[in-house]
Amino acid sequence: MWDGEAAWAALPTVLEGFGITLVATVLGFGVALLLGLVLALVGRAAPRWVAGPVNAAAAFVRSTPLLVQLFAAWVLVPALDALVLGVLVLGVHYAAYLSEVYRTGIDSVPKGQWEACTALSLPRRRVWRAVVLPQAVRNVLPPLGNYAVSMFKETPLLSVITVHEMFHEASSFGSTHFAYLESFTLAAAVFLLASWPTSVLVRRLEARLAKGA
Amino acid sequence: MRREPEDTVAGPEDGVAGTVEAVRFDRVTKRFGEHTVLDGLDLAVGRGERVTLIGPSGSGKTTILRLLMTLERVTEGVIHVAGEPYSHMPSGHGERGAGAGPGGPDPKAGLVPASERYLAARRRGIGMVFQHFNLFPHMSVLENVVEAPVHVLREGKEAAAARARELLGMVGLADKVDARPTRLSGGQQQRVAIARALAMRPEILLLDEVTSALDPELVAEVLDVLRDVARATDITLLCVTHEMGFARDVSDRILMFDRGRIVESGRADQLLDEPTHERTRAFLRAVR
Ligand SMILES: Nc1ncnc2c1ncn2[C@@H]1O[C@H](COP(=O)(O)OP(=O)(O)O)[C@@H](O)[C@H]1O
Ligand SMILES: [Mg+2]
User: Is the CB of B58 inside a 6 Å radius of any atom of ligand 1?
Assistant: First the structure.
């Protein structure tokens, strides 16, 4: 049954794993934010012979499981450090989704905003940077937040390519100390403690934006 | 020709003022699919002239302004601005070879449709105020006005801000510089939009039903500002409005449109007081 001492002993290991989980999430989401933006811009503004293949690649990534992508990358690029590889695969996988989110955001910017930019002769770059993207991103902050939470919750998959994230650490502690119940309960509690407040924040943000604050 | 002169609000020091047309439509046709909105329109506007376009909804007034702002492209014909081709460019201008027409009276002889790059340089002299303001909601009032002078005219931030404050003072919004546009009334927003357009020092200002979206009690404050602009500058004005009092006050000439054609044109008081065409009379009865 529940062994308080074992749980106490597992805590440092689990927290260390949590550190890696956080790093993977933050870096992975950073990659996804940037790459997703690039994908959205290419899909919107690049000539068709560039946009077509890029959109197809993104659709392909969206339609295959993250787990499969992790394994495939691990097999194809064995030289890369597992964490680096994990961050990249997470980033690319989520970028394929975030590009759609960005696109929705860009489409939500009214036509009149573009026309005002033309009337002011603003250069294309400036139109995107100063007018369209700030409004587009603002309009999609809640879905972006939700994807961040969901990426966080998917990091245990990285354990299959030997990244020492929290689930991996909990699992190895469990097997060496015969304390799966304690170590997994701790890991679950940490996930809950971290993602619940974040979800609440995202929902608040959503409500605030809906009010047009 | 790539660069517009920096100071372009006033015209007289240009030397050629009055001698060159600000705008000329040369047999301009605009179609949306099968629907012909403008059909071989000829129209000339002198430098500093104030022209008001009136006519029933759907007659093509907005399309004329949008063509000038390059928000639409002509289907046929050529638009000239300040004596130079505008919707088109000389075929030697770089991109694309000439599709030189069959000479003679072809307005397009030696011209090809303007490239985006050509337009980017030439549209700077033209500003537009829209029916629905189209202010940037995520920027403060001051940032709205400063944006283009800083990033298009390359004015210094300080100088641009100082001039923006001056313009905002002129439109009666000196105390709103830090406000978000969404916190302002429609009339205030439209006055910001006017200041924003003027900050680019346009030679030609296009006004498309700028009071149509406003509550009636807010119309006067916007029209008063525009009367001031008309009085204090010699900017060329092309204006679409249903406010006949305003049209009378500011216009040198009023053009009555119907179905993409000019039905009648004349001095403001003349056209409003003694319209000769039955369509004009019917229209004026309807809007009064
Ligand atoms: N982007 C467009 N696509 C199709 N039809 C259009 C478009 N813009 C305008 N039109 C049509 O062109 C005609 C003239 O419109 P417009 O210039 O806005 O008239 P006005 O400003 O005089 O009311 C209308 O019949 C309108 O439906
Ligand atoms: Mg109109």
Answer: yes
Q: Which domain holds residue B139?
A: 48-72+121-287
Mutate which of B25, B29, B32, B242 for ligand 1 pocket (most atoms within 8 A of beta carbon): B32
Closest approach atom of ligand 1 to CA B59 = 22
Q: What is the CATH number of the domain that holds B233?
A: 3.40.50.300
CB B206 within 8 A of CB B69: yes
> Is residue B234 situated within a structural domain?
yes
Instruction: Pick the residue from chain B with its C-alpha nearest to A111.
Output: B134
Query: A134: which chain B residues are within 8 Å (Cβ-Cβ)?
Result: 138
Q: How many structural domains compose chain B?
A: 1
Q: What is the ipTM of this complex?
A: 0.88
The bound ligand whose nearest atom lies closest to the alpha carbon of B67 is 1
User: Does A107 contact chain B (CB < 8 Å)?
Assistant: no
Q: Is B7 part of a structural domain of the chain?
A: no
A204 CA: distance to closest CA in chain B (Å): 20
| Euclidean distance between CA atoms B43 and B98, whole angstroms | 26
**Cα–Cα distance for residue pair A41/A17, rounded to 1 Å:** 36
DSSP-assigned beta bridge partners for residue B113: B88
d(CA A138, CA B193): 23
For residue A116, the chain B residues in CB contact (below 8 A) are 130, 134-136
Q: What is the DSSP letter of A130?
A: I
In the structure encoding, which two tokens stand for residue A205, read together?
């943000």
Among protein residues, the one with the nearest Cα to ligand 1's atom 13 is: B58
Is the CB of residue B61 below 6 angstroms from any atom belonging to ligand 1? yes
Question: What atom of ligand 1 comes closest to residue B57's alpha carbon?
Answer: 23
CB contact under 8 A, B138 and A134: yes
For the stretch B42-91, pLDDT in tens is: 999 999 999 999 999 999 999 999 999 999 999 999 999 999 999 999 88
* Domains assigned to chain A: 4-212 (1.10.3720.10)
Q: Would B216 be classed as within a structural domain?
A: yes
Model pLDDT for residues B172-226, shown as the tens digit of each residue:
999 999 999 999 999 999 999 999 999 999 999 999 999 999 999 999 999 999 9
Measured from the alpha carbon of residue B63, the closest ligand is 1
The Cα of B276 is separated from the nearest Cα of chain A by a number of Å equal to: 36
- Contact between B79 and B101 under an 8 Å Cβ cutoff? The reply is no
Give the pLDDT mean for A48-72.
Answer: 93
